[in-house]
């Protein structure tokens, strides 16, 4: 998820105006879960300060610190003193609906949630027989099935004995898949259940698809002010204290946070999420993008299929291209995104000068600077300067 995780944990990245982890927590709460243990480490203060004790969501949250990212089995080991005889374990970087969580909460046996995918490359894979899981493979090169591990489990207390015995893997982590395999090898049955609503957020561009899907289900609301002469069509949510100035044209689904100034004479197209305290000004066009809190795009700029971090400032005439001339799918740092359209991925605090140009698929590290008239492409390190 770099460069977006240069200043925050992955689970706090926004989708439709809320952190990934909040979406997961609210779906778990809707399924009937009331007690949560959040295992935190990198920038744990961001998680703690946002969720506090969970009372805002009507749940109880406790925290466990994992000082080094040593794998999911290690996270479970660190939490074992707080766990009962049965619990649900979830990866924090997935999107899931309550309909697929309810059966886990009510389960009485060990269960793994799985999803059938056309391509399981780079994912954990499950092999089954007779309604039970018989083997788990962690990112194997020749997967025997297309059943991917969804990172969502129901465990009985049996797992806690085996997690203490889990050895470190060749990747240098304590893998939960090794723990579950030990459980199976000891003759303790592990079932499985197909999920229907799962998505994994592995790369920055995955956020765009998740954001588009989440916004499609957001109801319209207007808590701010809309000047005469502004045009609002489709499902658009406008936060408290925000002002939509005359000449602005907004086509939903769009979500705009609190205390924003939008316009005059800008065009905000579908699947765009704008955070709190943002300014989108005259002659600006934005489509299918995530604009995080405190960012300013005040004059004559285009932002398409992009993610712009917090407190960025785009100079007048900044253009972020989102389509190759040959219209081929876009690769980022050697990884094929599978997307024909992808703009820029900016970390926090990025500044561009007037008439800056950003090539499709450019990754810009936090606090980087792109000078007036400069063209940026590829991967820019945090704090880099391009003239």
UniProtKB/TrEMBL annotation:
<keyword id="KW-0511">Multifunctional enzyme</keyword>
<dbReference type="GO" id="GO:0003977">
    <property type="term" value="F:UDP-N-acetylglucosamine diphosphorylase activity"/>
</dbReference>
<dbReference type="InterPro" id="IPR005835">
    <property type="entry name" value="NTP_transferase_dom"/>
</dbReference>
<dbReference type="InterPro" id="IPR050065">
    <property type="entry name" value="GlmU-like"/>
</dbReference>
<keyword id="KW-0808">Transferase</keyword>
<dbReference type="GO" id="GO:0006048">
    <property type="term" value="P:UDP-N-acetylglucosamine biosynthetic process"/>
</dbReference>
<dbReference type="Pfam" id="PF00483">
    <property type="entry name" value="NTP_transferase"/>
</dbReference>
<comment type="similarity">
    <text>In the N-terminal section; belongs to the N-acetylglucosamine-1-phosphate uridyltransferase family.</text>
</comment>
<comment type="pathway">
    <text>Nucleotide-sugar biosynthesis; UDP-N-acetyl-alpha-D-glucosamine biosynthesis; UDP-N-acetyl-alpha-D-glucosamine from N-acetyl-alpha-D-glucosamine 1-phosphate: step 1/1.</text>
</comment>
<dbReference type="InterPro" id="IPR056729">
    <property type="entry name" value="GMPPB_C"/>
</dbReference>
<dbReference type="InterPro" id="IPR011004">
    <property type="entry name" value="Trimer_LpxA-like_sf"/>
</dbReference>
<dbReference type="Pfam" id="PF25087">
    <property type="entry name" value="GMPPB_C"/>
</dbReference>
<comment type="similarity">
    <text>In the C-terminal section; belongs to the transferase hexapeptide repeat family.</text>
</comment>
<dbReference type="GO" id="GO:0019134">
    <property type="term" value="F:glucosamine-1-phosphate N-acetyltransferase activity"/>
</dbReference>
<keyword id="KW-0012">Acyltransferase</keyword>
<protein>
    <submittedName>
        <fullName>UDP-N-acetylglucosamine diphosphorylase/glucosamine-1-phosphate N-acetyltransferase</fullName>
        <ecNumber>2.3.1.157</ecNumber>
        <ecNumber>2.7.7.23</ecNumber>
    </submittedName>
</protein>
<feature type="domain" description="Nucleotidyl transferase">
    <location>
        <begin position="1"/>
        <end position="214"/>
    </location>
</feature>
<dbReference type="InterPro" id="IPR029044">
    <property type="entry name" value="Nucleotide-diphossugar_trans"/>
</dbReference>
<dbReference type="InterPro" id="IPR023915">
    <property type="entry name" value="Bifunctiontional_GlmU_arc-type"/>
</dbReference>
<comment type="pathway">
    <text>Nucleotide-sugar biosynthesis; UDP-N-acetyl-alpha-D-glucosamine biosynthesis; N-acetyl-alpha-D-glucosamine 1-phosphate from alpha-D-glucosamine 6-phosphate (route II): step 2/2.</text>
</comment>
<feature type="domain" description="Mannose-1-phosphate guanyltransferase C-terminal">
    <location>
        <begin position="250"/>
        <end position="323"/>
    </location>
</feature>
<keyword id="KW-0548">Nucleotidyltransferase</keyword>
């Amino acid at each position: 998820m770099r460069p977006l995780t240069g200043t925050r944990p992955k689970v706090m990245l926004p989708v439709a105006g809320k952190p990934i982890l909040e979406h997961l927590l609210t779906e778990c709460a809707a399924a009937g879960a009331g007690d949560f243990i959040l295992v935190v480490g990198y920038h744990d203060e961001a998680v703690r300060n946002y969720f506090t004790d969970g009372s805002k969501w009507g749940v109880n949250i406790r925290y466990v610190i994992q000082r080094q990212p040593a794998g999911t089995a290690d996270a479970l080991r660190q939490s074992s003193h707080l766990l009962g005889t049965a619990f649900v374990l979830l990866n924090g970087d997935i999107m899931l609906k309550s309909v697929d969580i309810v059966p886990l909460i009510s389960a009485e046996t060990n269960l793994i949630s799985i999803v059938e995918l056309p391509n399981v490359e780079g994912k954990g894979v499950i092999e089954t027989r007779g309604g039970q899981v018989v083997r788990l493979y962690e990112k194997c090169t020749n997967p025997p099935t297309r059943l991917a591990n969804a990172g969502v489990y129901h465990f009985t207390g049996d797992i806690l004995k085996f997690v203490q015995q889990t050895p470190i893997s060749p990747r240098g982590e304590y893998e939960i898949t090794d723990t579950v395999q030990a459980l199976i090898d000891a003759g303790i049955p592990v079932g499985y259940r197909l999920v229907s609503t799962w998505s994994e957020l592995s790369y920055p561009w995955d956020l765009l698809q998740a954001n588009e899907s989440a916004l499609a289900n957001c109801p319209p609301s207007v808590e701010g002010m809309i000047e005469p002469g502004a045009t609002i069509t489709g499902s658009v949510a406008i936060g408290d204290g925000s002002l939509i100035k005359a000449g602005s044209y907004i086509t939903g689904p769009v979500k705009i946070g609190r205390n924003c100034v939008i316009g005059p004479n800008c065009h905000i197209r579908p699947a765009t999420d704008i955070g709190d305290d943002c300014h989108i000004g005259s002659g600006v066009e934005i489509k299918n993008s995530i604009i995080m809190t405190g960012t300013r795009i005040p004059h004559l700029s285009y932002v398409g299929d992009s993610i712009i971090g917090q407190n960025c400032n785009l100079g007048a005439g900044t253009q972020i291209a989102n389509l190759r001339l040959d219209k081929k799918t876009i690769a980022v740092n050697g990884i094929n995104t599978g997307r024909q359209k992808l703009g820029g991925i900016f970390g926090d605090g990025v500044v561009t000068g007037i008439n800056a140009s950003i090539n499709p698929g450019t990754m810009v590290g936090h606090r980087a600077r792109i000078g007036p008239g400069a063209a940026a492409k590829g991967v820019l390190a945090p704090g880099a300067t391009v003239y």
